[in-house]
Design a protein that fits this description.
Blueprint: H1 22-35, H2 44-56, E1 60-61, E2 64-65, H3 72-77
Antiparallel strand pairs: 1-2
């Protein structure tokens, strides 16, 4: 899908993760994060700090949060999001 107006570019090429090449999926996720509107994203320093908390968390499994099921890199980049843990780490 091309970028039309205010609509963001989409990078997914298939609907289900099981149908995708793992490397391609993660490349697409990184591209998606890079292309998010800067107004929606936290600073790179805060992003790295958030991911640092995630790396130390017992609920991180293969890049996913066991509490909410998200990919932590996607969750951590957005200003509106926070850690789903109790207590929250960020």
């Amino acid at each position: 899908m091309e970028n039309t107006g205010n609509q963001p570019k989409r990078f997914c090429r298939k609907c289900l993760l099981q149908d995708m090449d793992e490397g391609q999926y993660f490349d697409d996720m990184r591209k998606y994060i890079e292309n998010l509107d800067e107004e929606l994203k936290v600073s790179s320093q805060l992003y790295d700090r958030r991911l640092g908390f995630c790396r130390e968390c017992d609920n991180l499994i293969s890049g996913m949060c066991r509490i909410c099921g998200c990919f932590v890199e996607m969750r951590a980049v957005m200003k509106k999001n926070n850690c789903p843990g109790i207590p929250k780490k960020w």
